[in-house]
Structure to design on (147 residues):
């Protein structure tokens, strides 16, 4: 779903967005930035839009209300958007909403591919194929639910 990218010396939002085929404005929205980037900054890069939709923030919205509206765990909603649960969100800002039909898991320190595959009840190879991943704490993984 997302790849973490550490900004290197000489990087710009334009060359990063071109490299990952992501619109610059979308990259700014996902990472909640409006200024130039600096070396060492960690960016979230979307890798598969099939797993989420977009929601435009209205005046008075907060993450908790939105999570209730879409029946989403507020911790997951915040993590998916690179936010803390208590972060302020702005009218007209777009955030990612996990799509129905998928299960999600946020990795923690000590997780292995085997542990996460067991949580999704799938093979390790399917987990890797579905997410194009390597495990780090804080990653969000998705798996299509079998109905």
């Amino acid at each position: 779903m997302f790849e973490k990218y550490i900004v290197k010396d000489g990087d710009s939002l334009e060359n990063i967005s071109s490299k990952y085929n992501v619109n610059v404005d979308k990259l700014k929205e996902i990472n909640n930035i409006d200024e130039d980037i600096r070396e060492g900054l960690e960016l979230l890069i979307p890798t598969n839009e099939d797993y989420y939709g977009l929601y435009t923030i209205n005046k008075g919205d907060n993450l908790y209300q939105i999570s209730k509206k879409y029946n989403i765990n507020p911790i997951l909603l915040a993590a998916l958007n690179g936010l803390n649960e208590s972060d302020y969100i702005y009218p007209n800002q777009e955030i990612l909403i996990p799509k129905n039909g998928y299960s999600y898991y946020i990795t923690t320190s000590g997780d292995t591919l085997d542990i996460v595959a067991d949580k999704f009840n799938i093979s390790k190879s399917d987990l890797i194929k579905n997410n194009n991943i390597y495990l780090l704490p804080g990653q969000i993984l998705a798996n299509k639910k079998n109905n």
About this structure: DSSP finds six helices and six strands in the chain. The first strand starts at residue 2 and ends at 6. The helical segments are 13-20, 24-31, 63-69, 74-80, 113-120, 124-131.
